[in-house]
Amino acid sequence: MAIEAERVGDMETTKTEGDDFTPDEEGASLLPLMMMTYMLQSYDKGIMSAATQFNFNSDLKLTTIVGYQADGKPITNNQKYSNAAMMFYIGYLVGTYPMMYLSQHYPTSKVLSLATFLWGAVVMSTAGCSNYVGIMLNRFFLGFLESTVAPAFTVFVTFWWTRDEQALRNSLWYSCVGVATTISPLINYGLGQINTSMPRWKPMFLILGAVTLFWSIVLSFALPDSPLTTKRLTESERKIVVRRLERNNAGTISRKFNKGQFLEAFRDYKLYSCTLIILLTGVPSGALGTFGTVVINGFGFDHFDSLALTCPIGAITATSILFVGYVTRKWNNLRYLSIVTCALISIAGTLICWLGPRNNRGLLFAGVFLIAVQVSAGGVAVSLAASNIAGHTKKATVSATTFVGYCVGNVIGPEIFGASPGPVYHAGFMGSCICLCCVVVIATVTYVLLRRENAKRDRIHGGRGGQHGIEEDLSDMKNGEFRYVL
Predict the structure, then answer these.
(1) How many CB atoms lie within 10 A of CB 28?
(2) Most CB contacts within 10 A, which of 107, 186, 395, 437?
(3) Closest CA to 485 of 327, 267, 332, 271
(4) φ, ψ for residue 129 (rounded to 5)?
(5) Is 80 exceeded by the pLDDT of residue 276?
(6) What pLDDT does 20 receive?
(7) Beta-carbon count within 10 A of 419 CB
(8) 294-298, 332-336, 424-428, 431-435: lowest mean pLDDT where?
């Protein structure tokens, strides 16, 4: 077979003609399933925000009026609502490591299908909640079950695509959080117009939960598991998969829990770098996801406009994630620069919303647009957690830990906004600005450290990364031939 050279990160690696042909076609069928699942996860998580426009908060007594502005507009305390939003991420936090363990010890596709079925049932059960305690329990179990998805997808990508392909593939499924935000407001508004004997917010949860239940059945039949065990590949195609995995230097797909790799993950600064970036970008992201319609309503827009105006925010989120994914796929070593650039753009947005004139609705809304761009920085950090970590247990551990950071950030964001009096939310925007400034610093420092590490490995092992058999399952710190993408 003809041999051609191909760049992967900072290293040259050989590629056998046809290496990325048939398996990538199988991976291409996997990607739409991942995208639809993540969109449903994001949609189901965010229904509560839309339900606030249909008396959800007042029915469950989650919002109280604590005073009035000079023009008669109420000053609200949304602490109980923010607590309910926070409880989703508490459940996500509690569920992340148990779900990681189950996904490694049992077929990931089956664990994911079952979790999807159960969280669909929980979404439907939201219609039965009638008080603060009920919604708190409901959101906890929803978060616990949804915690399966993103860490499993991060590991999925590393074994279906090579490292230079992973950033774009991660961006494609991760961008569906923006797709959900784009399409959900108008659908939710339509669902909210259904006239029944029930309050108007209840059919939203019943119908969308039923859609998720149906999708879980599709996943159980259509979602492949490991490329080394799926029956959809022939033996010759499976050999191509092995060559691709060897080229990744990423270790094998293993059902065995490696304690050494687990402990090594927590000694690796890359874990803390990716986790902190995702945590810090999660603060404004979580705030927009939970308080987006409430904040826009506070700018002076009515209920329908507040829902409709979240559509372009979702479109900007999805577009920025996909654009950054394309750029980092097209040109090597731009991932940390992309994180810094997106964070700086969103810093400008937080400053506008924090310090801008309250009577200029257009300017304030533009600031929210700019804040939405930072979600793509979190998406790049997710891809870095996949591409810069080798060893199956270590990769699964780092992936799960980064989404623990995601949970913490999404807890902090709504809490900051909930504790900040509406409709101005000064403390919320100020806190978001500080978090994004920290992202710039962390990304810059990590880039410098990894660049030095690559140069050190080049001096010791030579400039060309070698290959190890996937049965070795070496971590990136144990494999001197591994080079980090920047």
Answers:
(1) 12
(2) 395
(3) 332
(4) -75, 140
(5) yes
(6) 44
(7) 15
(8) 294-298
Report the alpha-carbon distance of residue 250 to residue 61 in Å, rounded.
50
CA proximity to 401, closest of 290, 277, 317, 256: 277
Burial of 89 (0-12, 13-18, 19+ CB in 10 A): buried
The one-letter amino acid at 444: T
Query: Buried (b) or exposed (e) across 458-470, using 16+ Cβ within 10 A?
Result: eeeeeeebeebeb
Question: What percentage of the chain exceeds 70 in pLDDT?
Answer: 80
Domain boundaries, the chain: 26-225+257-472
Q: List, for residues 463-473, the tens digit of each pLDDT value.
A: 655 455 455 56
Residues, the chain:
486
What is the model's pTM? 0.75
Angle between helices 176-191 and 22-51 (to 10 degrees): 40
**Residue among 53, 39, 41, 42 at smallest CA distance from 295:** 53
Q: Which CATH number fits domain 26-225+257-472: 2.60.40.60, 1.20.1250.20, 3.40.50.150, 3.30.420.40?
A: 1.20.1250.20
In angstroms, the CA 44 to CA 208 distance is 7
Q: Is the peptide bond before 423 cis (omega within 30 degrees of 0)?
A: yes
